[in-house]
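Need residues for this backbone.
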């Protein structure tokens, strides 16, 4: 027997999903923030991650242009993501490869009409 009701059931999004393991303190903080703001924990995490997407794209760009025969720099680059924090990835890239020109720096130089 089915019963019809007046409420709509929200179906899960078809967006890709990722299981995330957090320590207890981080989960407690997310739960508290969610309760205080009525923003779901998943939305908080998504907003925080989204605010770092430009860093991740920059890191990808750096990895793609990195000479594969430079094993030391490749190893340090991988370790940069593994040991990420507390500074941003771009600051870490600049420490590893001071000559690396970020996409932002390339754009600013192009707008000024300068060549490298």
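Answer:
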């Amino acid at each position: 027997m089915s019963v019809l009701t007046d409420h709509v059931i929200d179906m899960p999004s078809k967006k890709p999903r990722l299981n995330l393991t957090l320590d207890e303190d981080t989960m407690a903080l997310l739960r508290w923030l969610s309760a205080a703001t009525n923003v779901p924990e998943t939305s908080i995490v998504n907003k925080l991650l989204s605010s770092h997407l430009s860093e991740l794209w920059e890191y990808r760009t750096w990895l793609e242009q990195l000479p594969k025969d430079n094993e030391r720099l490749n190893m340090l680059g991988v370790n940069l993501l593994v040991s990420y924090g507390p500074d941003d990835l771009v600051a870490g890239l600049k420490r590893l490869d001071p000559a690396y020109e970020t996409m932002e720096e390339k754009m600013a130089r192009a707008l000024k009409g300068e060549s490298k």
